[in-house]
Design brief:
single chain, alpha/beta, binds 4-nitrophenyl phosphate
Length: 150
């Protein structure tokens, strides 16, 4: 089993979408895919309705996911930790206990734009088009990740 964690700030907009998209591209028998937020504002909450809607438009159901906060034990539970932006990277790496933990943390857009450490924009305060944009960027990145891993 390869275990993959998607991390953003709130765990209601970007990372649940990344979780749903990557799950749709990989065998559930060989991969465990989860998501978490660096903040605890939305613990127990369903994804943002705009993320649910854009996923549904492309045939993916993320409506039953529940927000949770990233914690240090996630470094033991997961093999790869994909972050959405620079701030998520800094927050997650600040909890790393050693180099092995730190080496698990990768910018998700490096799958499509290697070594550039681009941030996936936070769509929370924007309109629906921001969600369409992040869907497309995540779909491209997850297609590359799925190809590399399977
Ligand atoms: P996410 O977006 O990190 O992609 O889930 C956000 C959701 C909520 C907030 C910030 C970002 N918030 O400040 O509540």
């Amino acid at each position: 089993m390869t275990k993959i964690l998607m991390v953003c700030l709130g765990n209601i907009c970007r990372s649940p979408l990344a979780e749903g998209i990557l799950k749709s591209k990989l065998s559930q028998e060989k991969f465990i895919i989860d998501s978490a937020g660096t903040a605890n504002y939305h613990t127990g909450n369903a994804p943002d309705k705009r993320s649910i809607a854009v996923a549904k438009k492309y045939g993916i159901d993320i409506s039953t996911l529940k927000g949770r906060q990233f914690n240090t034990l996630d470094f033991d539970a997961f093999d790869i930790i994909y972050v959405m932006d620079q701030s998520n990277y800094n927050n997650v790496v600040s909890l790393a206990r050693n180099e092995d933990d730190k080496n698990k943390v990768k910018f998700i857009l490096n799958a499509t734009y290697p070594n550039q450490n681009h941030s996936l924009p936070d769509p929370y305060h924007g309109g629906d088009e921001g969600f369409e944009n992040i869907y497309k960027l995540l779909d491209e990145a997850c297609a590359k990740i799925a190809n590399q891993l399977s």
